[in-house]
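ok trying again, last paste got cut off:
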Amino acid sequence: MAFDLQPHLRGKLIELRPLRSEDWNDLFAVASDLRIWEQHPENDRYKEDIFRIFFKDALESGGAFVVVDRENRQIIGSTRFYGYNPEKSEIEIGWTFLARKYWGGRFNAEMKQLLLSHAFKFVESVVFFVGEDNARSQKAMEKVGAIKVGTATRTYGNHPAARNVKYVIRKTVTDG
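nice, full thing came through this time. structure:
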């Protein structure tokens, strides 16, 4: 069975649907908040020209989603699957951001659970990379049960390579 990188996933609070080009205005309205990016290695992603590159890459990735608040139907963020490796039985979840109003756990936890439940139909491990100085996102990863396994160097947009912390969540018997 082939890994569907862009299913439509629904939870109680949010739904994840494939990113479309017509989502630009709504998603940029969320992303233009500089506080979202202040700890990220690409901390200027709130700027329109920088976000346009991020958005284009997201569309071309074939695994990007918008996060929609089920109550008010507004786009509140984005995430994506990336780097599916069937030989290693793993995939990455990343490029995730939410509007600040949705920070604090419930929405991120549901989003990760929806993505993990889907991913574990196809892989044994899900990996995440978080900027070494992004304490907020590292804490969020630990809240959803990710285990720190090392570091890696990644390049984001027009910035020099940055150190990242690598996290993993492995499939358990109850996941699949």
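cool. The chain is about 30% helix and 30% strand. The radius of gyration is 15 Å.
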